[in-house]
From TrEMBL:
Annotated InterPro entries: 6-hairpin_glycosidase_sf, 6hp_glycosidase-like_sf, AGE/CE, Cellobiose_2_epim
One Pfam family of this chain: GlcNAc_2-epim
Family statement drawn from the similarity comment of this UniProt entry: Belongs to the N-acylglucosamine 2-epimerase family.
Organism: Asticcacaulis machinosus
Domain of life: Bacteria
Keyword Isomerase: yes
Annotated EC: 5.1.3.11
Keyword flag Isomerase: yes
Phylogenetic placement of the source organism: Bacteria, Pseudomonadati, Pseudomonadota, Alphaproteobacteria, Caulobacterales
Catalytic function, reaction form: D-cellobiose = beta-D-glucosyl-(1->4)-D-mannopyranose
Enzymatic class: isomerase
Record keywords, A-Z: Isomerase
Record function comment: Catalyzes the reversible epimerization of cellobiose to 4-O-beta-D-glucopyranosyl-D-mannose (Glc-Man).
Protein name stated in the entry: Cellobiose 2-epimerase
Length: 409
C-alpha cells in the first residue's frame, strides 16, 4: 500500500463513520404520526411552532433514500417510506398538481405558491426513492414533476426556467426563493437543482425527453450561467439572461463543478462532456485560488468588483468543497486538489463539529456568527449527508483494486 492509498483508506474510514453519525442524528427528527420535526434549535429542542417546509421534506426523502440504498439500511428505508407518504398526502396539490411551499405546524396548507426549485427537489427525491424501492408510483411522481417543470416553467423564448408560479401555475410578482435572494425571474441556484434532478432521473429511467431537457440545462450553464470572462457562476438574471449578479458564490462554484460534470457524464454526449470538463476544472481552480482560507475553509462570497470578501463560510460550502475537489482530482490527477478536499474535511472536523453534537453547525466556530438552528427549512442532511456518500463512492473508485479492474476491463 502506497502512502496515498493509506491516506485515502483513513479518509474513507472517517467519512463512513461520519455518515453513520449524521444518520443517527437526523433519524431523531422522526416525529409522532404523520410528521418529522420541522425545526430543531441549537440545544437540540424541537420547535413545535415551526412551519413545515417542502425543502426539508424533499431533502429528507432524498437523504433517507440514498442512505438506505448505499448502506442497505432498513432504518433509512423505513424513514424514506414515511417521508414519501408525508409529501404525497400533505404537500402534493391534488387539484393542480405539483408541490406547495409550506405547511402550518398542524400540517394544513400555509404557503401554496410553487417554486421551480421545490418541484425539482421533489423530482430528485422521488427518483432516488425509486432507485431504493423500485416503487412504480415513485417514478411516476418524479416524471410528473419533470413534465410539470417542462410545461410550466421552461422559457420557450429565451431558454432556461422561471423561478416561481402560483398554485395554479400563473405568474406571481415575488419570485424569490428566500429573503436573501434578488427578486429575479431566473437564478443559477434553481437551474443547478433542476440540473441535478434531471441528471438522477435520466440516470435511473432514461427517455428522449429527459435527455433533451438535461442537454438543454447543461447548455444554459455553458451559454449563460458560467461567465466566459471570469469563469465564475453568474447568480441572477432577467428573463433574457441579462446578468443581475453582484457577487460570486464560492460554495456554488465548487458545487456546480461536480454536478455539471456528473450531468454531462450521465448524458453521454462527448462534445458536451469535453466542454463541461474544462468548465468544471476551471471552477474548481478559481475556488482554490480565491475562495479558500489558510486552514482549508471555503469562503462564502465575494463582490464581483472586488470590493468585499465574506470569509465566513457555511457548512454546506465545506461539504461541497470536499466533493468538488475530489472530483477535480479525479479529472486532472493533480494532487493539490486532493489536498484541498482533505483540508475542507479537516476544516469541518475542527470548526463545524462541536463535541457531543451530532449535526454540523451552520457557521464555523469562532466565525462571529450565531447559527439560526440545527435543522430546519434551510438546514437539512442533503449537503453534508450527500457529501459523505459521494466522497465514499469516489474514494472507492480510487482504490488500487478498482483501478486494476478498470484497466483490465
Amino acid at each position: 500500500m502506497t502512502p496515498l492509498d493509506g491516506l485515502l483508506h483513513i479518509l474513507s474510514a472517517e467519512l463512513e463513520a461520519e455518515a453513520e453519525r449524521l444518520f443517527a442524528w437526523w433519524s431523531k427528527l422522526d416525529g409522532p404520526g404523520e410528521s418529522f420535526a420541522a425545526e430543531v434549535d441549537l440545544q437540540g429542542r424541537i420547535n413545535p411552532s415551526a412551519d413545515h417546509s417542502i425543502i426539508l421534506a424533499t431533502r429528507l426523502l432524498w437523504y433517507f433514500s440514498a442512505h438506505g440504498r448505499l448502506f442497505e439500511s432498513q432504518a433509512s428505508t423505513r424513514l424514506a417510506h414515511k417521508a414519501a407518504a408525508i409529501i404525497r398526502s400533505r404537500f402534493w396539490d391534488k387539484e393542480h398538481g405539483g408541490l406547495i411551499w409550506a405547511l402550518n405546524p398542524d400540517l394544513s396548507p400555509k404557503t401554496t405558491h410553487k417554486q421551480a426549485y421545490a418541484q425539482a427537489f421533489g423530482a430528485y427525491a422521488f427518483a432516488e426513492y425509486y432507485a431504493l424501492t423500485r416503487d412504480a408510483e415513485a417514478l411516476s411522481l418524479a416524471n410528473h414533476l419533470f413534465n410539470l417543470i417542462e410545461r410550466h416553467y421552461r422559457d420557450a423564448e429565451f431558454g432556461g426556467y422561471t423561478e416561481a408560479l402560483s398554485a395554479r401555475f400563473e405568474r406571481i410578482d415575488d419570485q424569490r426563493l428566500s429573503d436573501k435572494d434578488l427578486n429575479a425571474p431566473k437564478s443559477m441556484n434553481t437551474h443547478l437543482h433542476v440540473l441535478e434532478a434531471y441528471t438522477r432521473l435520466h440516470q435511473i429511467a432514461p427517455r428522449p425527453e429527459t435527455a433533451e431537457a438535461l442537454a438543454h440545462n447543461i447548455d444554459m450553464f455553458l451559454r449563460h450561467i458560467i461567465d466566459d470572462q471570469s469563469g465564475h457562476l453568474r447568480l441572477f438574471f432577467k428573463a433574457d439572461w441579462t446578468d443581475l449578479s453582484h457577487h460570486v458564490s464560492f460554495g456554488h462554484d465548487i458545487e456546480a463543478s461536480w454536478l455539471l460534470f456528473e450531468a454531462a457524464d450521465v448524458l453521454g454526449d462527448d462534445g458536451r462532456l469535453l466542454r463541461v470538463k474544462d468548465a468544471a476544472v476551471r471552477l474548481a481552480e478559481l475556488v482554490s485560488c480565491d475562495g479558500i482560507s489558510r486552514d482549508g475553509g471555503i469562503y462564502y462570497e465575494a463582490a464581483k468588483d472586488g470590493s468585499s470578501l465574506d470569509m465566513v463560510g457555511e457548512w454546506w460550502g465545506q461539504a461541497e468543497g470536499l466533493v468538488g475537489f475530489l472530483n477535480a482530482f479525479e479529472l486532472t490527477g493533480e494532487d493539490r486538489y486532493l489536498g484541498h478536499a482533505l483540508a475542507a474535511w479537516r476544516f469541518v472536523a475542527t470548526h463545524h463539529k462541536p463535541k457531543g453534537l451530532g449535526e454540523w453547525t451552520w457557521y464555523p466556530a469562532g466565525g462571529g456568527r450565531r447559527d439560526p438552528y440545527l435543522a430546519g427549512a434551510w438546514k437539512c442532511p442533503y449537503h453534508n449527508g450527500r457529501a459523505m456518500m459521494e466522497a465514499l463512492h469516489r474514494l472507492d473508485r480510487m482504490k488500487p483494486e478498482a483501478a486494476g479492474q478498470a484497466a483490465a476491463g
